[in-house]
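Researcher: Please translate sequence to structure tokens.
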Amino acid sequence: MEATTHENNFSEKQSASLQGEKQHLILHVGPPKTGTTTLQNSLYQIKEKLLNMDNYYYLARSEDAKSMENKWMYWVSNEIGHEFRTYLRDIGESEGDFLVKDDFEVYLNKGQAIDYDKKWRQMSYIDTKKRHKKKENRKGDFKEKVKDLLAENKYKSLDHYHDLFSNLNKLREDHQSVIISAEQFCFNNKLLPDNARLWNLFAPPLLENWEVIVVVTYRRYYEWITSFYYQENLQRFFPNRKETMESFIMNILEQSRSLKKDGKWLHVHPTFHAYTKYKNHFDHVKIINLHDVKQGDIATNFICNAVPNADHTCSYMKSSTFKSPILRKSTGLDFHLLVQIAFDRKYIQMHLFESNLIYDQAVKATKRFHEESFEDEFSYKCLPSDITDEILEMSQAFEKELLPDWYQIDENRKSLHDGFQNVLKEQRFCEPDYEEILSKSEWRNFFSSDLNRYMVEDALME
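Model: Translation complete:
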């Protein structure tokens, strides 16, 4: 694998190999839960300096940037997946012929393997034939048919595609390099490099005239897996169920064990998955190691080690003047899960939950009841030691595979082990013992008799 960020900047040889007529396009693809939001907000903060000092235009993807550029990125990462089925129906084709299995989607299916061929054959190929009469086949091959269809400007998302395409061309003609950061390029949409037919249709017009450097960020597995758990479950709105940490992690570990039989288990780590995917298409794929503290914060590490010829911005970020944005605080799931389990046990009146809004109000009321009625925190239970030991072993294996030179250094192996011990000490693999909590009559009485009153009181106070 290509040398990672513990080497200082791009070497002279690397920089020389990237020289030429093409401008640089730095494509940061995530994956999620590896510091993407912090990086994007930092890049937005230094956007003008990047442009004025080193001629890099940051195509903004930031929570603070409510711009048309965000709409372009949304189209590239999301809309194409939803609308392409309509494209295919209109030209008399079926997407069931070429959709490709993505191992990482097993996470979204609670760790259960999916028969993708059967799934897409049922959803697309058969449905297209049975429910939709094929329109008259247009003459020409697949690519020509889609090209003709795009020219009709029939679909809303194409406006964003054309805007993005024309603006990238303008930047290139103005001899400006570009930075894009959008973790949706990592997985969970259909415009990906392992989906060859779609990728070859839409990606080359955007990328073929650039010197592309793909950047993937790396976070240790024992940190990433708990962060991913919270993100996935907080995005599940009532009546969709949230999972306990134990159930979620056990499902992932079960899936990784089954993938070992096929030699694919390394893809369980999203950084390995993304790196492998893009390495098949691009000569320059860099890994940014979030744990290489000598390189500074993630944004400094990124600019100084993954972006060629950004020396002035790198110097600025290493100075005391630059301050990285504050990280977002994680939101716990304790009260969400407590309400859900109480609901499952029928302690809560069924008619109360008519929407996600009411569910959120119940969570807020439950938290207030706990603060007013109990001095102590919840009692917690943690994952068994054999499970956490397995997570540590996987973390070591991933780091050794992704960063072999880095992993050979004793200090770095010790850092991994010490970091894991801190995770255990901070009880990040622990969650409330919901069985023990609901065994108390005070909690059962609250859910069955007092929850509605608390919710009404909260509403009156707002």
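Researcher: Any highlights?
Model: Strands lie at 23-28, 56-59, 177-181, 210-218, 285-289, 380-382, 430-432.
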